Amino acid sequence: MTFRIPSLIMAILERDLRLALRHGADTLGAVLFFILAGALFPLALGPSPELLRRMAPGIVWVCALLAALLPLDRLFGSELEDGSLDQLLMTGLPPSLIALAKMLAHWLTTGLPLLLAAGPLAIMLGMPTPSMPVLLIGLLLGTLILSLIGGMAASVVLGARRGGVLLPLLVLPLTTPALIFGAAALDAAQTGLSWGPDLELLGAFLAAAIPLCPLAAGAGLRAAVE
Amino acid sequence: MLEVENISVFRGERLVLDHVGFTLGAGDALLLTGPNGAGKSTLLRVLAGLRKPEGGHVLWSGVDALADRSQHADRVAYLGHQDALKLGLTLRENLTLAMRASGGNPDLCMKSLNILGLADLPARMLSAGQKRRAALARVLLAQAPLWLLDEPSLGLDINTMDLLGSLFAAHRQAGGIVIATTHVPLPLPDARTLALPGLNESDISQPIEDFPEDDLL
User: Fold this and answer.
1) Which family does it belong to (chain A) (predicted)?
2) Can you give the residue ranges of every domain in chain B?
3) Most buried in the list B33, B52, B135, B154, measured by CB within 10 Å?
4) Is B96 at the interface with chain A, CB within 8 A?
């Protein structure tokens, strides 16, 4: 069994990427929401460059967080509805690894496009270019955390009535540490302080989420098919 | 050999399976019959390791099969009520995961169900019967000794039923076990039948004494 695990994880990733390419609406939807939500702030706050520059880190992070939530309830929901989740479990892959593969797929189809769109949005809000690497490194870690915690929450609410409503209520509180550290690193970079410690804390958060979230999600998947 | 002992399952407050037991050897087949809601599908899911029973044991060659459910999955080919096909993927792409899990040849399996010609069509273009055949191809592909089939004949035409009969025969010839739920006759000669009684609410407190186990053991 052990030797098949990487091949099975790759097969799940390939399958989800193919599906994401063929039904581009989910992926594009999240990215477009990210850009549009970010574009609303200048309209609402007025076009003061000074104000927008100061708020840019927070805006980019909050919008990324909300945009990553959008495709989450379909992540396992579609698998449960058409019976694919049973077949995934019947491949013999441990449920936690199935969950990990799906979380990776979520990152590739949502986190990575958000990361690519974050640069243009930050420039639009007038963020100074020297702090751009801090934004992208922070968001790289942050979107991975979002996929892990989001995947965990998605599997926990799987099969629950009104799971889609419950999902943000579970994910948003759990991801606040990532938001705080990520935005704080950017703030520090903009004011010329050291941004290293904040990113390191973000990395530590990710390091804890990598083993814990798939384990919890695996238990959620098992419970959902019962 | 598959030994099922005293399986009991609650769904909510209701006892759907009450001390169900049977033993099947290599080449045996078992038909699960009974009214809607009698727990046929639930029993299949228990045997597949997808659901934990509230009581009882499933033994495979004398070993507790449900202790390691991921390992048990390798012994089982499960056909659910739904076909579990992704509509946006072609048939071949739909079978990739099962192929990686078992190392089987998807083309051969599609050929034995007469759907090789449809292999590169997206599943959304297929009729209900063709989708069912694709799901059956995945059962073949799993190369597992124990087939658990939830109404395998759903939507199949007469020719495919004959085909299904020969596939069942070949599987049993090779020492495999078939357990199927059904409401219509299936091409499984000398298969045993386990009739699950639909339980009324009044039955919850009093277990059924004369459960037809004796004709199975």
Assistant:
1) Belongs to the CcmB/CycW/HelB family.
2) 1-75+145-217, 82-141
3) B135
4) yes
Show me where the domains of chain A are located. Answer: 2-225
Task: Confirm or reject contact between A11 and chain B (CB < 8 A).
Answer: yes
- Asked if residue A125 lies in contact with residue A55, where contact means CB atoms within 8 angstroms, the answer is yes
- Measured between CB atoms, does A3 come within 8 Å of chain B? no
Contact A18 B97 (CB under 8 A): no
Interval A104-161: pLDDT, tens: 999 999 999 999 999 999 999 988 888 899 999 999 999 999 999 999 999 999 978 7
Q: Can you give the pTM of this predicted structure?
A: 0.90
Q: Which amino acid is at A82?
A: D
Least confident of A144-148, B10-14, B45-49: B10-14
Phi, psi of B59 (to 5 degrees): -110, 130
